[in-house]
Amino acid sequence: MPPLLNKRRQQKLPFEDWLKQSLHGPMITATLYQEGITYAEQNFLDESANHLRVDKQLLKEKFNLNKNKVLDFGCGMGGMSLWYASNWDCQVYGVDIDRHHVKIANDLKNRHQVKNVTFEVRNVLERPFEEKFDFIVLNDVAEHIQLPILEKIFKALGQSLAYGGSIYVSYPPWRSPYASHVQHVTGIPWCQFLPQGMLMRMIEKNNRPIVGEEESDLVAAYKGLNHLTHKKLMKSIQGSGLVPVYRKSHSFINKLPGLKNLNLRIFPFDFLVTKEFVLLKKENEAYNAGFI
Ligand SMILES: C[S@@+](CC[C@H](N)C(=O)[O-])C[C@H]1O[C@@H](n2cnc3c(N)ncnc32)[C@H](O)[C@@H]1O
Prior knowledge:
Elements: H1 3-11, H2 15-24, H3 30-45, H4 53-62, E1 69-73, H5 79-87, E2 91-96, H6 99-111, E3 117-121, E4 133-139, H7 147-159, E5 161-171, H8 183-186, H9 196-205, H10 218-223, H11 230-236, E6 242-251, E7 273-282, H12 283-288
Parallel strand pairs: 1-2, 1-4, 2-3, 4-5
Antiparallel strand pairs: 5-7, 6-7
Helix pairs in contact: 3-5, 3-6
Bound molecules: S-adenosylmethionine (SAM).
S-adenosylmethionine binds next to helix 5.
């Protein structure tokens, strides 16, 4: 079957909608569009938005992005790109492969008149950057990319780093209670460790469309995960010339007085880690700067 017709069948689009989409580009239903705008706007404006609170705190604490050229790789619907652009005097480039996400990001940028951010649909493996960036962020992105592709992406991103630049990766490690990305519908933290047949039936029962064009429902979102761990991440940067210079494993425990900096990395306590934060630099620069 021709690929476009096959895609129509997978997306279960009525013929008329499929034709419009093929002729005019990405099409999102009004409900999903509104859902995307509301979600991304909250990520942009709400400092206490639950799943990004720790990310925002850590970024503010550790980095000064003034005068930086920032690449938000896998920017999604742009909430965080707009947040970087509004918190620092920097130039932000948000790129993503998903046309639905980038459409929402651009609409939000226009709605809030944020000038120092640009969004683009781009596959960096097909169209690498010519410019260099001081700070490249992959926020909740690396766990969505199949590992052989992630390896190639890190090589490409390493080549797009300006002198002294860094790549910042944040993701929920596979043992995290939220790593399945579907616990909100199953109601069960760590549900990724249930027998897969049982879990798939639970997801299918509660399945619903989501904003993405690439991952357009919860089943696809779950199946797209690469079960990322720190070990797998380290394997995927091999050959890129990048090395880790900082790692924080954030868990609930860090909220307790005096335990802010505790990293729970030993089994079984590592199941309590909700998010990993890793900073990468070029190996020679990390060496010269005394990181390794
Ligand atoms: C969970 S979203 C995170 C979005 C955003 N970084 C945030 O924090 O809100 C993951 C994003 O990664 C994007 N993505 C996946 N593979 C990609 C690739 N190869 N190149 C660029 N973006 C990619 C997806 O389209 C999706 O928008």
